[in-house]
Amino acid sequence: MVYVFICVDFDRDYGYPIRNIKHAVSKPIHLEKPNQINNPETAISIQGTSRSFNPFMEFLISKELPTCFYFEARSLDLFYNEHLNKAKLFDQSFFESGIHGFDHEDLIGEKTGLILDYIEEKQIISKAKKKIESLMKTEVFGFRAPYMKISDRTLDILLELGFVYDSSIYLESTHGLVPYLITNELVEFPVIKTPKTSPMKGMYTYLWPLFEGKRSVKETVDNYLQITRNSRDLYSYISINLHSWHFAYNIEHNQYLSDSEIIQNLRMFEEIITKLENLESVVFSTPKKWLEKHKELLNNS
Q1: Is 79 helix (H, G, I), strand (E, B) or coil?
Q2: 19 band by pLDDT with thresholds 50, 70 and 90
Q3: Residue 199: per-residue pLDDT
């Protein structure tokens, strides 16, 4: 058996780090309205997310697919303010909420040059947690760092704030993974990256290459099926990772897509899910649901 997690980073349209600015800037705004980038309230666009939101959510809901949304707090807040009726679609028992920063912050300062201290990083994550919990009316247990980069403080902060798991680490593998304990209270769910020397040619399990036209849907599907076939552990998982805006915004060309192109991207995503759904060995789940069933395995290992 292999558990499959659909994981969506719900954030601004291509969060772009800029030197000496703590908050990420939406790339379209950086290119078109550079005078707005210094203010975190004007440096954000959720146009891509909102344009593809309804058909994407309707697909997930129609199939009752467990999905984990890692929310960037400002994007979620803006979405609720501008698209309340759409936001109501999050109210599904099979959806799970996690955190993806408040303003898609660079926690290690690699791209911005701004190093956060313990107190500042904790304040950011705590503020994001409170905002998301107040909007979603649910407790949040999971964290995914912006840019998939955690600092040497992040895990201690997550423990202090009562998080149950993190999913910010890449791990090379050609098969499904079993999460591991960081401490007795905190679990790591790594994101698979296949080795470059494998037949899967260094595929990240983020769907960036698919939506950017760098991998075909057939190759992407075949790679996921191969990872599934390689998996022997009864409790292993793979995650399919994507961004909420990526159906509608192309990074390489720095442009929003047409409605027909958005539908094409959605159809490719649906094809991946349907192919996996048809395998008897696959069960769709979320990290929290996995832990509810199997946490004792980790405690005893």
Answers
A1: helix
A2: very high
A3: 78
pLDDT at 300 over 80: no
**CA 111 – CA 19 distance, rounded (Å):** 7
Contact 50, 78 (CB under 8 A): no
**107-110: long-range pairs with CB below 8 Å, 24+:** 107/145, 107/146, 107/147, 107/149, 107/150, 107/151, 107/154, 108/149, 108/150, 108/151, 110/147, 110/149
What span, in angstroms and rounded, lies between the C-alpha atoms of 260 and 247? 11
Q: What is the tally of structural domains in the chain?
A: 1
State the residue range of the domain holding 103. Answer: 2-300
What does the pLDDT read at residue 202? 82
Token pair belonging to 266: 């959605």
- Token pair of 250, please? 């192309």
The set of long-range contacts for 88-95, using a CB threshold of 8 Å and a minimum separation of 24, is 89/53, 89/54, 89/57, 89/61, 90/136, 92/60, 92/61, 92/64, 94/64, 94/65, 94/66, 94/67, 95/60, 95/66, 95/67, 95/68, 95/69
List, for residues 72-85, the tens digit of each pLDDT value. Answer: 999 999 999 999 99
Q: Is 251 exposed, middle or buried (0-12, 13-18, 19+ CB in 10 A)?
A: middle
- Listing DSSP states for 14-46 in one string gives TEE--TT-SS-EEHHHHHH-GGGTTSTTTS---
- List Cα–Cα distances, 262 to 209, 243, 248, 267, 301, in angstroms: 15, 13, 5, 9, 44
pTM for the structure as a whole: 0.97
Q: What is the distance between the alpha carbons of residues 145 and 32, in angstroms, rounded to a whole number?
A: 27
Supply the CATH number for residue 64's domain: 3.20.20.370
